[in-house]
Amino acid sequence: MNDLTTLKLHINGEDRPVVFPTHHTLLEVLREECGLTGTKHGCELGECGTCTVLVDGRPVLSCLILTADMAGKRIETVEGMMHGNELHPLQAALADLGAAQCGYCTPGILMTAKALIAENPKPGTAEINEALAGNLCRCTGYQKIVEGVEWAAARMRGEDGTPPEKVFYGSPIPVQE
Fold first, then answer.
1. 50-99 pLDDT per residue, tens
2. CA of 10: how far to CAs of 6, 40, 72, 80, 167, in Å?
3. What is the Cα–Cα distance from 131 to 112, expressed in whole angstroms?
4. CA distance linking residue 104 with residue 42, whole number of Å
């Protein structure tokens, strides 16, 4: 017999009634019941960070928590980052820098970085690396991602923070004599 649970989840600023098997994780309900497929399905073991969402402003691995425990919580997914057609500064910075390659890890990285900047508006490289340590990316060397978080944080503080030209185009070729 399938035990079903009915809840009203507060997702991306909206209340959404959902009916789901009691044993389903938040990841399963977000993707299958709510159609919010921006949250990616990765390892299902809490090791890759791909499924990271914010619950009450804190990053959580949605593959490891039961939806039944989410009553009264504020849930934010990557779909909730945009304002109308305007990208969140983190989304824009990662796109501008080419920090996402295949993009599968990007939603989890964006959510983790958003929580970091909310807690620490001026994170240094070490803090960014520590915050993103649980988010695996198989395509990049992480450098562009870290630079993107730094740039977005600067923009969000009202600073220009434009990265040096070499970030976009690489270092100039040395002249040989």
1. 999 999 999 999 999 999 999 999 999 999 999 999 999 999 999 999 99
2. 13, 19, 7, 12, 39
3. 7
4. 9
**Tens-digit pLDDT profile for residues 19-47:** 999 999 999 999 999 999 999 999 999 99
Contacts of 47 (CB under 8 A, 6+ apart): 134, 136
Say if CB 105 and CB 136 are below 8 A apart.
yes
β-pairing, 14-21 with 4-11?
antiparallel
Displacement of CA 144 from its chain's centroid (Å): 15
| pTM passes above 0.85 | yes
Is 76 within 8 Å of 36 (Cβ atoms)?
A: no
- How far is 100 from 96, CA to CA, in rounded Å? 10
CA 110 vs CA 51, 115, 152, 163: distances in Å: 11, 9, 11, 19
Q: Do 49 and 27 contact (CB within 8 A), yes or no?
A: no
Q: Provide CATH code, domain 89-162.
A: 1.10.150.120
The domain covering 4-80 belongs, at the CATH homologous superfamily level, to: Beta-grasp domain (3.10.20.30)
Size of the chain in residues: 177
